[in-house]
Amino acid sequence: MLENKEVQIRDPFILPVASEGKYYMYGSTDTNIWGKGTGFNVYVGDDLQRWEGPYPVFRPDSDFFSDTNFWAPEVYAYGDRYYMFATFRRKDNELLGTAVLAADSPLGPFKPHSEGPVTPESWSSLDGTLFIDEQGSPWMVFCHEWQQVADGEVCAMRLSDDLKGALGEPVVLFRASEAPWTTPYVAKRYPDQDNYVTDGPFLFRSSSNQLFMLWAGFIENKYALGIAKSSSGRITGPWVHEEQPLYRNDGGHGMIFRTLDGQLKLTIHAPNQTPDERPLFLNISDNGDAITLING
Q1: Looking at the predicted structure, is the pLDDT value of residue 245 above 90?
Q2: Which of 47, 111, 124, 274 is the S-S candidate for 95 at Cβ 3.0 to 4.6 Å?
Q3: Rounded to whole angstroms, how far apart are CA atoms 71 and 216?
Q4: CA-CA distances (angstroms) from residue 189 to 107, 147, 150, 186?
Q5: Which family is annotated (predicted)?
Q6: Pick the CATH number of 60-293 from 2.115.10.20, 1.20.1050.10, 3.40.50.970, 1.10.10.10
C-alpha cells in the first residue's frame, strides 16, 4: 500500500465506483511526463489515503499516433463502457491533441476509441474533459494551448454520441487573461509574447444546478486554480470569473467528486514541480451559488 505522499502523479482524476466501495485514481503517471510516454497507471483505494498499485491501464501499441507527453487521463462511465479522455503529442505534426480511449473495466486495458485526437489537427490542444449538457449531448471542453496562441483559451466542441469524433467546430468560451486573478506567465522559450496559461478545465453543477468550471493558470509564475460560472447555465456561457483563485499555493489541475459517503472533495496536484507533485484532497462547500474551499 502507498500513501499519498509516496505517489508521484500530476492531474489526478478520481472515479468513485460505489458498487465496489473503491476509488480509482488516474493521472499523468510517467516519472518524466515531459519526455517519452510509456502509458497510464491507476491506483485503487477505499479511503483516499492509501492506494494499491500502480496498475497499468494503458500501454500504446507500436502504431499508436503518439510516443511523447502522455497527459491528464480522465475516465468516465458512459453507456455500458468506460471512456478515457487523454492528451498526447502527435508524431505527425508534434502538436498536442486529446483522444478518446475505451475499456470494459476501470482497470482497462484501455484501447484507442477515436481515430487519433478529436481536437483540431492544426491546433495544439490539451486537457480534454467530458461534459454532458441538459439535452444529454456530449461535449469536450479543452484548452487551446498558450504556446500556440499566447493567451490560452478554453474551448468547447460538440461530440458524436459515440464519442468518436466532433460534430462541429470548437467554440471559444474564454481566454485566460479575462480572469482577474491570473498574471502573465514568464517562459524562457516565449520571452517576446504575453503568455497567459489555461490548463485542466473541469465542469461541475452545484446543488442549485448552476454550472461551474475549474481551470488552472499562473499567478506570478506559481500554479493556481480558478473558478468561473456560466451565467446562462449552459456550456456556451457567458462565463464569469471569480475575483480570487480557489487555490494559489502552487497547485492545480483540479476536479470535484463526491465521496462514497456523500462528501464533496477537490483533488489537485501540488506542488507543480517534477518529481515532487503529489495528490492533494481538499474539502469544499457548495451553497448552490458558490464553490468555496473549507481547508487548504
Answers
A1: yes
A2: 124
A3: 15
A4: 38, 9, 12, 9
A5: Belongs to the glycosyl hydrolase 43 family.
A6: 2.115.10.20
Q: Could you give the CA distance from residue 32 to residue 235 in angstroms, rounded to a whole number?
A: 34
Contact 234, 213 (CB under 8 A): no
Strand partners, 2: 51
Summary mean pLDDT of the chain = 96
Q: Would you place residue 193 in the very low, low, confident or very high pLDDT band (cuts 50, 70, 90)? A: confident
Residue 162: what pLDDT?
98
Residue 206 has what pLDDT?
A: 96
Cα 260 to the chain's mean position, in Å? 21
End-to-end Cα distance, the chain? 25
Residue from 283, 259, 261 nearest 14 by CA: 259
Q: What mean pLDDT comes out for the span 244-272?
A: 97
Set of cell numbers at residue 282: 481538499
Strand order in the sheet with 138-144: 125-132, 138-144, 153-158, 171-175
Query: Rounded CA gap, 224 and 254, in Å?
Result: 10
The helix/strand/coil state of 106 is coil
- Please give the helix or strand (H or E) that residue 291 lies within, else none: strand 291-293
Report how far Cα 17 is from the mean position of its chain's Cα atoms: 19
Q: How far is CA 9 from CA 135, 143, 174, in A?
A: 35, 20, 28
Q: What is the pLDDT of residue 191?
A: 77
pTM over 0.90: yes
CB 134 within 8 A of CB 182: no
Q: What is the pLDDT of residues 205-217, one digit of tens each?
A: 999 999 999 999 9
Query: What's the pLDDT tens digit per position in 266-285?
Result: 999 999 999 999 999 999 99
Q: Where are the domains of the chain?
A: 60-293
